[in-house]
Amino acid sequence: MKVYDEVVNMVKPKFAYVHLAACSGCEISFIDNFERLLDMMDMVDFEYITLLKDVQEMPAVDIVFIDGAPCLQSEESVKMLKEARSKAGFLVAWGGCSATSCINNFSRGGQMAQPQHESFPQVCRIVKVDAFVPGSPPGPEMAYNIIKAFVEGDTEYLRYLTTYEVGGFACGCDLMKNIIENALCIGCGACAMSCPTRAITMVLGRPCINWERCVKCGACYAQCPRSFLPVPVMDRMMEGL
């Protein structure tokens, strides 16, 4: 892929983090890498991230994390997203709100502060996304792993995250339809452990979903080892044991 070929030849890629409509949980998860933040800073130059750096305008970068969903009734929000896309070589939809719209799917507007703000679609409805990371929030180690894979041009690690099967729209329905109903579940419980609202419990070795708690973040389906099978990555990890 062209972007990875370019990355291999870079001295040090530039990184940006853009925050749209969300609770900041994904942003905090990113910061929760603690000492690994220093390793990440060794791998990429942090050019734009409001929590860590006082920069008002995003420069051109090689990789950008988009956190949160854009509001269609906010010209500023949509403009910011399109600008981030135009200035970044590789765009990551970081977290449930940007990858699948998550709980923002239920927004109908009418709030006192901004009653006209009523629709918050997933990022890929407006711009092209290169990688999706569902979860509310994703684990901190995912940020580290993605940046490391990007810098090293590890296409095998990124391959699953770059498919539109992960982003766009995903929820417990995908888990039931694609995994359970096809007898692919191995009862590992990864879906239940990844659910941020504890909407999934394991009953007789199979996931049972409380639909009133499901916020459609897509984390369960993304974490299910039977929704994808990264054999080369698994072989490499086994060799390292």
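Above is the first protein from milestone M3; the second protein from the same milestone is given next.
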Amino acid sequence: MSAAVQPVMPATTEHELVTPRAGRQVLVVCGRALAERWHSLLGWGAAIALLSVLQLSVYPSVARSQKSMQDFLAQYPEGLRQAFGLEDYATAAGYVHAELYSLMVPIVLISVAVGAGAAATAGEEEHGTADLLFSLPVARGAVLAGKAAAMVLGVLAVDVVLLLSLVLGSPPVDLHLDTGHLLAATVQVSLLGVMFGALALAVGALTGRRGAATGAAIGLALLAFLVETLGPLADWLQPWQRWSPFHWALSNRPLGHGFDTGGVLALAALTLVLLAAATLLLHRRDLRTT
């Protein structure tokens, strides 16, 4: 009697390459990106904390001269007061808007996001690490999603430092801000930063050049800021204000009025479009390798 023939199972080895799930791929790439940028984030966090403390330290003198300050600013042309956010400068919300949220905070958050977006894939190509990264069993879409998540988390980390500085630093100088409005202003300005970061990521995916990605995003951010700021002073610029992302983020004065749903949706929608474009461009390009 012959022995029964056993089915032959496919051979496996302990060195067989196992592809991680998509979620784990995104987490790994995100963690690596954050680990590479923590020094930079620490510096930006320290800068925003110092900036907040300095501006808060000046507020008591502004509050003491509130009446004379209002009379002085009333002599300015209305367009000039609108351009520089001086209409309610003597109030707590107006002061923080004019000194921090109208320019300095957007500059910091846009810089954090654009730096991360430009380095996402273009930085990998310029440093010669793209061939190693994309030879791993990780989908290009997962790489981009992980890099984008690290960009958002970096902006959120700076936001936390900003909010803690203002919430903890306001009571000693008798500056009263609505916490909900402060959160709304921070969210809207953060979306503004992330939107320009997504633009840098898309340009980096298109060109593979970090300088081009940074230049395009910062250049368009500067143009959008000038259109929004100079609009009240130049009639021909006013029709273009509605197309400026700065207008979507700040025109409703969120520190005084809270969330602007339309502005938030516009910024979020444009960010998603840019990330989708970056994903498509990254899939279609032959990446530069060493």
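Note on the second protein: The chain is about 75% helix and 0% strand.
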